[in-house]
């Protein structure tokens, strides 16, 4: 019995219908609130642009590179083409001559000038900044010297002020609160002593005093006691803090 592939496929049951796929994939599931701590960070979405940073300086550096002419094999300055071997040997053994040939625009290769040209604006900027810093240094030195002079002058004035204050306190020492309080206390005691002496002298006198002498004695005693009372009252007020002055 022969095998016919067409009969086998025709007699078999029809194949199941596969689901159709669309070109647009379904939307992704929503992200959870807690980000995963495993794995590297995800790349930014395709709609966002990459921001330049300091790490991208190499790209800018390559774009800013000047165009330098290549040095041809066997190139020599025109002034050295007709030199002898001894002269060339002398030039090779003298670094100063080599430096002069490289720095002279008429003998140097154009690539040297092309490579140095971008540095000229930076050199000019550095020279300008150097000049500015020198000016600021001179101004700062002048201000420092002026400030030092003012400081010395202020110190001298402060010393004179302290001397004047000391002289004033010495001159007014007898009028200080402490001195006034001591004088008030001494004057009260002195007046009490004068009153006692006046009374004792009157009692020690012998004989009969006239009416005029009695009146004079009474007047003097009243005035003395009045003065003593006022001084005691002033001292009491001072001790109680009821008047201004030393406490």
Automatic annotation (TrEMBL):
Its main location: other. Residues 1-82 are annotated as: Disordered. Residues 158-247 form the VPS37 C-terminal domain. Coiled coil: none annotated. Signal peptide: none annotated. This is VPS37 C-terminal domain-containing protein. Residues 24-47 have a biased composition (Pro residues). Keywords: Endosome, Protein transport, Transport. GO terms for cellular component: ESCRT I complex. Pfam families: Mod_r. It is found in: Endosome. PROSITE patterns: VPS37_C. InterPro entries: ESCRT_assembly_dom, Mod_r. One of its GO terms (biological process) is ubiquitin-dependent protein catabolic process via the multivesicular body sorting pathway. Belongs to the VPS37 family. It comes from the Eukaryota. Residues 1-23 have a biased composition (Low complexity). SUPFAM superfamilies: Endosomal sorting complex assembly domain.
